[in-house]
Amino acid sequence: MQIPGPSGPSSGAVRRVLVVDDSKMQRRILSATLARAGYEVIEAASGAEALEIAARLVPDLILSDWMMPGMDGLQFCRAFRAQMHGRYVYFILLTSKTETTDVAEGLQSGADDFLTKPVNGQELRARIAAGERILRMERELNEKNRLVSSTLGALQSLYDSLDRDLMEARKLQQSLVRERHRSFGNAEVSLLLRPSGHVGGDLVGFFPINARRVGLFSIDVSGHGITSALMTARLAGLLSGTSPEQNVALVLSDFGIYDARPPAEVAAHLNRVLLEEMDTESYFTLLYADVDLISGQVALVQAGHPHPAIQRACGRIEYLGAGGLPVGLLEGAAYQDFTATLRPGDRLLLASDGITEAVNAERVQLEEAGLSRLMARNAGLGGPAFLEALVWDLEAFTGGEFTDDVSAVFFEFHGAKENVG
């Protein structure tokens, strides 16, 4: 028996062949033929000996006699396959059997090929060359699978890291809407912001203009994900309720108090800022309302956003506005103010298209008619409870699947009261 110096599995080309035969003469003949062809040959006189050798010196290919005392070739093949489950070795059975049932039995036992005894040297080299090709393909495939697994592992690690970052980004984006409900005594405002993913492109909010006026806004940035979320963060600063000096909707009068630009001028100013100061292809739709808390007078601008809805105290629902161009789409875009009057008991809803364009299982959109039904159904609810019920009904309509961000500003006018601060 010839034992090579280095141990362990060979790599690269097929070089190491284990010859298993109880006939010493047959082993010598096969070994000589293989050695002349440049192969490293290991000999074993029995299946048991071959298993012990294979455990230490993993061969690339095995030539094994079928008929051997003790453990025959089929038993050895099955035992070897069980022992070497982590590495594939090409297995050729040497046999004088030619019956179809015998060949089938050998294949079922794990053999890859057969050689009929007595072995022809030329045929032996051809069968081993075929085995080499198969082993090369198998090892190339394993290497590619290893690279794919390694890449998938790296991508999963990157995804997990990104997922953690997005979870934190979601918290930060939600913090942009610090106050979800406020009562002004004779009126109250409630906000809804629910992104369809980790982060979204919708933004809602309000800010005081002076003692009797409040600004309301609903924004929907084009696209989804991180870019849109970053844009909402910038816009939250431009319409800040805590830093009036940064709020583009406010101007400082000669008397040292803040007043508001007309809504159309606010949209036009934001359009210039987006096109001139931000190097981005994003744009957004906008509804902005300047509401007088005493008189109920409302001045609005609509820039590509869904129409604002007024639910009158009697239950009638009206949609206002003529559409308008989105902000940041065209240089020099013109915007128009329009007005409405709220009477005691009236409610104003500024909703994103994530609500009106929500679809059910039949791919039918909710649209304004569907929104009117939901508003009428929940007319007895107010404040955050109304918005919560609206989301529940919307989930029932869509089957719980929101493909777009859902947001809304809900303003309720109760009527002027004395001593309103």
- The name CATH uses for the topology of the largest domain is Phosphatase 2c, domain 1
What strand order characterises the main sheet? 6-7-18-17-14-15
Number of helices: 10
Fourth-tier CATH superfamily name of the largest domain = PPM-type phosphatase domain
Supply the CATH architecture of the largest domain: 4-Layer Sandwich
Radius of gyration: 39 Å
Largest sheet: 6 strands, antiparallel
State the total count of DSSP E strands: 18
The N- and C-terminal alpha carbons lie at a distance of 104 Å
Classify the helix fraction into a percent range. 25-40%
Task: Kindly report the average pLDDT value.
Answer: 87
Unreliable spans are 1-12
Q: Give the topology string: H per helix, E per strand.
A: EHEHEHEHEHEEEEHEEHEEEEEEHHHE
Strand content: 15-25%
Structural class: alpha+beta
Output the CATH class name of the largest domain: Alpha Beta
Morphology call:
rod-shaped
User: Domains counted in the coordinates: how many?
Assistant: 2
Protein name: SpoIIE family protein phosphatase
Modified residues (4-aspartylphosphate): 65
InterPro entries: Bact_Sigma-Reg, CheY-like_superfamily, PPM-type-like_dom_sf, PPM-type_phosphatase-like_dom, Sig_transdc_resp-reg_receiver
Domain Response regulatory: 16-132
Structural write-up:
The chain has a six-stranded antiparallel β-sheet. Strands 2-1-3-4-5 form a five-stranded parallel β-sheet, sandwiched between helices. A five-stranded antiparallel β-sheet has the order 8-9-12-13-16, covered by helices on one side. The longest helix has 55 residues, at 121-175. The chain starts with 15 loop residues before the first strand and ends in an 8-residue tail after the last strand. The protein is 37% helix and 24% strand. It has ten helices and 18 strands. Strand 14 and strand 15 form a beta hairpin. Helix 2 (47-56) runs parallel beside helix 3 (73-83). Mean pLDDT is 87; it is low at 1-12. It is of the alpha+beta class and 421 residues long. It folds into two domains: 16-145, 3-Layer(aba) Sandwich (Rossmann fold), CATH 3.40.50; 176-413, 4-Layer Sandwich (Phosphatase 2c, domain 1). GO terms for molecular function: phosphatase activity. It comes from Frigidibacter albus. Keywords: Hydrolase, Phosphoprotein. Residues 16-132 form the Response regulatory domain. InterPro entries: Bact_Sigma-Reg, CheY-like_superfamily, PPM-type-like_dom_sf, PPM-type_phosphatase-like_dom, Sig_transdc_resp-reg_receiver.
